[in-house]
Amino acid sequence: MHSTNLLLEEPIRMASILEPSKPTFFPAMTKIVGTLGPKSRSVEIISSCLESGMSVARFDFSWGDAEFHQETLENLRTAVKKSKKLCAVMLDTGGPELQVVNKSEHPISLQVDSLVVLTPDQDKEATPNLLPINFSGLSKSVKKGDTIFIGQYLFTGSETTSVWLEVTEVKGEDVVCLIKNSATLAGPLYTLHVSQIRIELPTLTDKDKKVISSWAVRNKIDILSLSYTRNAEDVRHAREFLSKLGDLNQTQIFAKIENVEGMGNFDEILAEADGIILSRGNLGIDLPPEKVFLFQKAAVHRCNMAGKPAVVTRVVDSMTDNLRPTRAEATDVANAVLDGSDAILLGAETLRGLYPVETISTVGKICAEAEKVYNQDVYFKRAVKCVGEPMTHLESIASSAVRAAIKVKASVIICFTSSGRAARLLAKYRPPMPVLSVVIPRLQTNQLRWTFSGAFQARQSLIVRGIFPILADPRHPAESTNATDESILKVALDHGKTAGVIKPHDRVVVFQKVGDSSVVKIIELEN
Which pTM value belongs to this model? Predict the structure, then answer.
């Protein structure tokens, strides 16, 4: 995969770097996905996370039971009402994840150059010389010389809490390994990853299906994060499964790329999925360190050109225990934004980190600063060239709307949409101003009852860079025909004014469908 450099806007005044950042209603155009867990599940903490910029809440089912996650979700709903901030719900499947099981939960100290046995016998107790695992086929998948990595919950990369193993011998169902670094494993579960080895387990496991059929159906999740996606068939299988579960036929599927097999099939996966999550924790083990950034840049570029959200993970690991990120991490967040990422996903940092709110706030501020110097002009030309000619009618109008908004220095683009597609097309061309996506509900029926669509579509856009959704009242007309105050356009303008993104005498670009035609209008506001 190839991509070209995206230059910063020039010139950058050195004095401007010293100017303090101005607070805004929208902390950043780039979205933040926060993983909710033990340190971030109270109503107060979740409310603060939403106020700080979290727009998607991730529920990681590789640990914790449905009851625990349900309590957290109920707190999220209370926090949404309290803060009046929309938030999408993402369910992250466990997938074919291998785990070391420590029933006693006592810390296990592993010493460098010692031997340790990985066994599928989960009845045995975990010791420094014996680690039970949840998979009986490991001995058939590995050979002498293969590398195995073990870390707590999510890979931290810290040599004191994660360990590298080298396979020295396979004995029946047991795998004997040489410990490459000293570490202490603390807690009940540790994730086990075998570098560049295919594990013969289904991507959507029976446990995942059970969780989706119960918890996900009950809570009408907006996004399914499909862990360890290896090919397009994995996405098709998951979509077919969701299609039979009522409202979940509207749930979007984000393919999580975590290994070299997923990388090799990236283009076919991108064509099938609704979005991509680059799981850099696992990719950083499967790939040599010097190759990780290349894949990130190439993969994000492909997502951008396809108009599908790209989500980057593992950016500020040190903030799990510290109030400030390292210099390298702060730069990494900014580079992810400059590469074109739609969202930053925080895992351990908010799941079990000591500073979940501060982490979200800090990442949001870094994103906002990076967005100021994002070279939209270079990107726009590249996107138009990639699409080629002839463009589809809707793509042509969307790109023209963005170009018009830039030329007239519009403060905001207002887009009327039912499916969310029009707003996503606008976002594809990365306008430097916010896109207020006014989702018009549609009346629909399943032959048993009538319902309005729109809620899913509004929340799902919360992971797309630059889109800020408003769910319209279905009783309001798409545009006022008699200058009444009840037009949806006025509601959107009032929302923009309240948010502080629209001021008197500003210009606003409106993108909407009138009959069979798409129309772009430029409005200049009075006092």
Answer: 0.90
Helix, strand, coil in percent for the chain, rounding step 5: 40, 25, 40
Q: List Cβ neighbours of 208 (8 Å cut-off, separation of 6 or more).
A: 61, 93, 94, 95
pLDDT digits 0-9 by tens, 171-227: 999 999 999 988 888 766 678 888 877 888 899 999 999 999 999 999 999 999 999
Buried b (16+ CB within 10 A) or exposed e, 373-410: ebbbeebbebbbeebeeeeeeebbbbbbbbbbbbeeeb
Cα–Cα distance for residue pair 271/178, rounded to 1 Å:
41
Could you report the per-residue pLDDT of 296-339, keeping only the tens digit for each? 999 999 999 999 999 999 899 889 889 999 999 999 999 999 99
Contact 335, 342 (CB under 8 A): no
**Which tokens belong to 228?**
């360890």
Adjacent-strand bridge partners of 174:
171
Give yes or no for a contact between 382 and 393, defined as CB atoms under 8 angstroms apart: no
How many alpha carbons lie under 13 Å from residue 157 in its C-beta half-sphere? 14
Q: Using CA atoms, how far apart are residues 279 and 302, in angstroms rounded to an integer?
A: 16
Q: Are the CB atoms for 303 and 341 separated by under 8 Å?
A: no
Q: Which two tokens stand for residue 217?
A: 């159906």
- For CA atoms 209, 215, 218, 219, the dihedral sign is negative
> Which of these, 120, 97, 133, 108, lies nearest to 171 by C-alpha position?
120
Closest of 481, 478, 491, 486 to residue 518, by C-alpha: 478
Write out the DSSP string of 52-102.
Answer: HTEEEEEEETTSS-HHHHHHHHHHHHHHHHHHT---EEEEEP--S-EEEE-
Strand partners, 435: 413, 467
Burial state string for 237-250 with b = 16 or more CB within 10 A and e = fewer than 16: ebbebbeeeebbeb
Structure letter (DSSP) for residue 259:
S
Tokens of 14: 């050195």
CA atoms within 13 A on the CB side of 140: 7
User: 3-state class of 151 per DSSP?
Assistant: strand
